[in-house]
Specification:
Largest sheet of chain A: 5 strands, mixed
Shape of chain B: globular
Strand order of the largest sheet of chain B: 4-3-2-1-7-6-5
Largest interface: A-B, 84 and 82 residues
Number of strands of chain B: 14
Pfam family, one (chain A): Myotub-related
Structural class of chain A: alpha/beta
GO biological process, one term (chain A): lipid metabolic process
Structural class of chain B: alpha+beta
Helix content of chain A: 40-55%
Protein name (chain A): Myotubularin related protein 6
Distance between the termini of chain A: 17 Å
Strand content of chain A: 5-15%
Family (chain A): Belongs to the protein-tyrosine phosphatase family. Non-receptor class myotubularin subfamily.
Radius of gyration of chain A: 28 Å
Keywords (chain A): Coiled coil, Lipid metabolism
Strand content of chain B: 5-15%
Radius of gyration of chain B: 25 Å
Oligomer: heterodimer
Distance between the termini of chain B: 56 Å
Chain lengths: 579, 605
């Protein structure tokens, strides 16, 4: 019997169902899309469990979250080294900034201009501090245009900000200057794109509230473009609908597809992807810089900037590069992880699967370009697991300032070193970094390229195949190849050594002994033995050959008095919990 | 693509032949006709023979191909969709092929298309040139831009006439003589005796009956069938008279671990009077008696209870409970015939639209119901397999004719239960035994694919549905099938249009009359050539001795993009990835293989 563990922080909702003859059913829905059914024999116990879980899953303060008590038995310096693993200054250097056109600004060093931005921001060299300060006053939450990604070869920039406070007619000269400075920082192309990632209607409605979007007439050399990604509330209810469809028992094919359609989930995924492609094309084809914003510039803007960077730069498609990308465009630029993931007992209207959508877009890219990514699906799923787990400090809080106040680097651990230690699990065996064809990804967003991500939304449902990843098997074969090759080299050098000794005429017993244990047959059988722990073996076979009772096509139960063996399936079956 | 091979490698048999002869020269030069089935030629068979030779359209057989070719050649440009560069050159129509030969400076080979694989043709003229759009049975869409209006119209008419010839023995397989293959090779890979040998090793309750040796008991069964030992040939013949098309219950698969069997037949002819047949009842009784003691039986009817009842009005029906003690009926309605064909057509239509919105695509995917058919087929097969493996019951599957959904269920159930059928040869044997020899009317069902404007008469993509289900199994159990998507795609292509004779005709009887087995090449010998293996095999295969129970949840079933979107998306990334998998796997074999050489060079003390 295995013990199933569910983190309290993963609990999204607990529901007590009507009493049955066998006990009181308790359904726990998790944020990682796991659904667990319990039957508690006594109703009183059930009620107690229900209440405890409700309390435990909703914490009032950060200090009560798991990360503050999680102790992986590391000392302070190890922990600190973990936090230093990803260095954004190093990353900007890699991109090629600062340079003659872009510089590091100290305007926000004390979080005086914008509380939700990081301390270190890169801006055009010709943009003076008064211009920056002026522009920040004209932007929602003070989030003025700053550099997100610099394309060294094209000398074009991806910048990000929030919506301007333009209302119906307001202007801001400093803001206009700053945008001009951004387009001037591109020596090749004088015009730049301003991408408003919202649907046009939403942006127009914002004008009534004194916000809105850039008026093309007021800014020289900008090309304005709406790309129509829906807001966090639409996304939240879309996912809710998707989960409802998936939770239906005995779902028919038609209900599944009509549910998938009416949830709109894949349409939203496609919209995010299309926006990133628009950005990529502006840079690659037109050599133009792009400024991206939405309302506050921390949800859709993060999605589009990060996904665009991923398409443009193969570094972000490596394991470490992907960590850097998340640190840069999501964590440092103030994507409100704690609110969006509901880490604390706060406003449920702030919860939204914005980051999940980003991961899903990346998954779609890995499906279309199986050789372009160093990491595999498990890596994405693991990151998704941890944005909710609150086990590590990376995703706690809503912006850098808040994280500093929480002293996360002193009190909690960073996730990244733990993922790197486990790197083997997350490697894509088909990755071929040298292939020049995949330098810039050009995904095809024809509707039928978007598929339901079964392994995300049914990760924990044992009854839905395939349960094993082909990639793991290939990975192991690859490993085995390497090991065998090393063995061969090893043996060959030993033989050479041996032969040399032989020609010297010294053949001692010790020497023979030193060769013997390394004899190839022994070594091979050894590594095969190790291999048997991994997929190509009997243990795996029992996984592949499955139980028909897992699946719902049986009609015999009613035909025979003999009843079906009890099914313990996490999602639909019944697990007993004795108290 | 077997249909578009380089001409440089082989000579095409000329399509023209002496006028007046009823069969082309190519055929006359074939080895003397001898039927491998030793069937005596009754006068009735002779009659049918002449009908087949001439084909349903009397003009086609005796006519020279040259009469159908209006224009020999024209200058044209060929557009082959995304990923393939356009080709320019001289277009030429022959009896069986459309050729495009690039100019002398071009580096590419001759381009060749089997006319039989053209499903629909559309012509447009503007100014002094024209455009022909060819939609192929393998779902490819080709566009030809041709110089000259007359030439365009003539070529279109020629293609139209030649691609729809219905005569079997003037079809290309009778002319196809590839290098490296010998006629008659591989035909005897899977005769009924072959499977019977295996059954006989497992149980002695069954025998091989030659009651149908001259195809007179059941025209759609092979010469030999496996039946209960306790039932004699006379009883079989009488049972056959009680079943539609003479398809009496025969063994499809013996499941040794549980000692149960899978049978198939057609519907009993109970009719409105609820007729009974003692020999038919005796046959099913003998089945239970020969299985493990105390075994019960299930009849899986692939029609709804209501449809089965209605069939009585037209002379059909279903087994009455009282007449077959120990047997119970289960109804699992499965779509067949025209609705299935329409579903296929609508899916292909939806897959051709690159501009549609996400919502439109999902609603069309739902509306075409194709994946619902996949789910139905898989879950009915699972039901049959589960009845044998888990409940220890014998299973008889039938619908009405017993040549379509019945075969779908029995063949899939075997794949689920039988590890041997998941090997390369085992699967080929399964297709041969459960589809070709079992009398699935390929010629009728696969006359047209999804593009034809003609109203479907007998067309239905039952075999494609089978291949799709196998693909789903392969996706859910990535290590358990020895063959890969490549084999399934090849079978789809060849079932609809092929230079090989394997899928010709509707039954063994017809194949025998047309001497398909002696005068055409077998697809299996074509596929089993070493050079084809990398495309067809699954590099990750490891023998899995267990049953593989697929998930039939809609979340687990996926659209078979490799088939339905094969020509609309650039194939490079996935093909490159496949190549990489092969590299890793063969690398593994290489390093493993090189071990002994190292040990051999180890100095001996």
């Amino acid at each position: 019997m295995t013990v199933e563990m569910i983190l309290h922080h993963h609990i999204a909702s607990v529901e007590k169902l009507a009493l049955t003859t066998s006990g009181c059913p308790l359904v726990i829905q998790c944020k990682n899309f796991r659904i667990v059914h319990f039957i508690v024999p006594r109703e009183r116990d059930c009620h107690d469990i229900y209440n405890s879980l409700l309390q435990l899953s909703k914490q009032a303060k950060y200090e009560d979250l798991y990360a503050f008590s999680y102790n992986p038995k590391q000392n302070d310096s190890e922990r600190l080294r973990g936090w230093q693993l990803i260095d954004l200054a190093e990353e900007y250097k890699r991109m090629g900034v600062p340079n003659s056109n872009w510089q590091l600004s100290d305007a926000n060093r004390e979080y005086k201009i914008c509380e939700t931005y990081p301390r270190e921001l890169y801006v055009p060299r010709i943009a003076s501090k008064p211009i920056i300060v002026g522009s920040s006053k004209f932007r929602s939450k003070g989030r003025f245009p700053v550099l997100s990604y610099y394309h060294r070869e094209k000398e074009a920039a991806v910048c990000r900000c929030s919506q301007p406070l333009s209302g119906f007619s307001a202007r801001c000269l400093e803001d206009e200057h700053l945008l001009q400075a951004i387009s001037k920082a591109n020596p090749v192309n004088r015009y730049m794109y301003v991408m408003d990632t919202r649907p046009k209607l939403n942006a127009m409605a914002n004008r009534a509230a004194g916000k809105g979007y850039e008026n093309e007439d007021n800014y020289s050399n900008i090309r304005f473009q709406f790309v129509g990604i829906e807001n966090i509330h639409v996304m939240r209810s879309s996912l809710q609908k998707l989960l409802e469809v998936n939770g239906t028992k005995g779902l028919s094919v038609n209900d599944f597809y009509s549910g998938l359609e009416s949830s709109g989930w894949l349409r939203h995924i496609k919209a995010v992807m299309d926006a990133a492609i628009f950005l990529t094309k502006a840079i690659m084809i037109e050599n133009a810089s792009v400024l991206v914003h939405c309302s506050d510039g921390w949800d859709r803007t993060s999605q589009v900037c990060s996904l665009g960077s991923l398409l443009l730069d193969s570094f972000y498609r490596t394991i470490r590069g992907f960590m850097v990308l998340i640190e840069k465009d999501w964590i440092s630029f103030g994507h409100k992880f704690s609110e969006r993931c509901g880490h604390l007992d706060s406003d449920p209207k702030e919860v939204s699967p914005v980051f999940t959508q980003f991961l899903e877009c990346v998954w779609h890219l890995t499906e279309q370009f199986p050789q372009a990514f160093e990491f595999n699906e498990a890596f994405l799923l693991q990151i998704h697991e941890h944005i909710y787990s609150c086990q590590f400090g990376n995703f706690l809080g809503n912006c850098q300032k808040e994280r500093e106040e929480l002293k996360l680097k002193e009190k909690t651990y960073s996730l990244w070193p733990f993922l790197l230690d486990d790197q083997k699990k997350y490697l894509n065996p088909l990755y071929s970094p040298k292939s020049q064809a995949v330098a810039v990804l050009e995904p095809n967003t024809v509707s039928f390229n978007f598929k339901f991500w079964r392994n995300m939304y049914h990760q924990f449902d044992r009854t839905l195949h395939p349960r094993q990843s082909v990639f793991n098997i290939i990975m192991n074969m690859n490993e085995q190849n390497k090991q065998l090759e090393n063995d061969i080299k090893d043996l060959e050098s030993k033989i050479k050594q041996h032969k040399n000794k032989q020609t010297d005429g010294v053949l001692t017993k010790e020497l023979l002994h030193s060769v013997r244990p390394e004899s190839p047959t022994l070594k091979t059988s050894l590594c095969f033995k190790e291999q048997t722990l991994l997929p190509v073996n009997d243990a795996l076979r029992t996984i592949e050959g499955s139980n028909p009772a897992d699946n719902r096509y049986s009609e015999y139960a009613e035909e025979f008095s003999k009843s079906e063996p009890a099914v313990v399936s996490l999602e639909y079956g019944v697990a007993r919990m004795t108290c | 693509m077997p249909a578009t091979q380089s001409l440089k490698k082989r000579k095409i048999v000329s399509a023209s032949c002496d006028s007046g002869t009823s069969c082309p020269a190519g055929v006359a030069s074939c080895p003397a006709s001898s039927c491998p089935f030793r069937s005596p030629r009754s006068p009735r068979l002779k009659l049918l023979e002449s009908a087949l030779l001439l084909g349903p359209r009397p003009t086609a057989g005796g006519m020279e191909f040259s009469e159908l070719i209006r224009t020999g050649r024209a200058q044209a440009e060929l557009l082959r969709g995304p990923g393939a560069p356009p080709l320019r050159g001289t277009l030429c129509v022959t009896g069986h092929h459309l050729l495009l030969s690039p100019g002398p400076q071009a580096t590419s080979d001759l381009w060749l298309l089997l006319l039989r694989s053209v499903d629909s043709i559309e012509k447009r003229v503007a100014g002094d040139s024209g455009t022909i759009t060819l939609r192929c049975k393998d779902l490819r869409v080709l566009q030809l831009d041709i110089e000259g209006v007359e030439a365009t119209l003539d070529i279109a008419r020629s293609i139209e006439a030649l691609s729809s010839l219905e005569s079997v023995i003037t079809s290309f397989p009778f002319f196809y003589r590839p290098k490296g293959l010998r006629l008659g090779d591989a035909w005897h890979f899977h005769p009924p005796e072959h499977y019977y040998k295996r059954v006989a090793r497992e149980t002695n309750a069954w025998r091989l009956s030659e009651v149908n040796e001259d195809f007179s008991v059941c025209p759609s069964y092979p010469r030999a069938v496996i039946v209960p030992r306790a039932v004699d040939d006379d009883a079989l013949a009488r049972s056959a008279r009680f079943r539609q098309g003479g398809r009496f219950p025969v063994l499809s698969y013996h499941h040794a671990p549980s000692g149960t069997v899978l049978l198939r037949s057609s519907q009993p002819l109970t009719g409105p009077q609820k007729r009974r047949c003692a020999e038919d009842e005796e046959l099913l009784r003998a089945v239970l008696a020969g299985a493990r003691p105390g075994a019960r039986g299930f009849i899986v009817d692939t029609r709804s209870a209501q449809a089965a009842k209605q069939a009585r009005m037209t002379g059909g029906g279903t087994e009455a409970k009282a007449a077959y003690p120990g047997w119970k009926r289960l109804h699992r309605p499965m779509e067949r015939g025209r609705p299935l064909q329409e579903s296929f057509v609508r899916l292909v239509e939806a897959c051709g639209d690159l501009e549609q919105s996400m919502d439109r695509w999902l609603s069309r995917l739902e509306g075409c119901r194709w994946l619902a058919h996949v789910k139905e087929a898989l879950s009915t097969a699972c039901l049959a397999a589960q009845g044998m493996e888990r409940e220890g019951a014998c299973i008889l599957v039938h619908g009405a004719e017993g040549t379509d959904s019945t075969l779908l269920v029995t063949s899939l159930a075997q794949l689920i239960l039988d590890p041997l059928s998941r090997t390369m040869t085992g699967f080929q044997e399964l297709v041969e035994r459960e589809w070709i020899q079992a009398g699935h009317p390929f010629q009728l069902r696969c006359a047209h694919s999804a593009f034809s404007h003609a109203r479907p008469k007998h067309e239905a993509p039952t075999f494609l549905l089978f291949l799709d289900c196998v693909w789903q199994l392969g996706r859910q159990f990535p290590l358990s099938l020895e063959f890969g998507e490549g084999l399934l795609l090849a079978l789809f292509e060849h079932a609809y249009a092929s230079p090989f004779g394997t899928f010709l005709c509707n039954s063994e009887k017809e194949r025998c009359l047309c001497e398909v087995r002696t005068r055409t090449h077998s697809l299996w010998s074509g596929l089993n050539q070493p050079k084809e293996q990398r495309k067809l095999r699954n590099p990750l295969y490891v023998l899995n001795p267990l049953a593989i129970w697929p998930s039939v949840e809609p979340q687990s079933l996926r659209l078979w993009q490799g088939l339905f979107l094969r020509w609309t998306r650039p194939p490079e990334p996935s093909e490159a990835a496949w190549e990489k998998v092969w590299q890793i796997v063969t690398d593994k074999e290489k390093t493993e293989g090189s071990q002994p050489t190292v040990s051999a060079s180890e100095p001996q003390p």
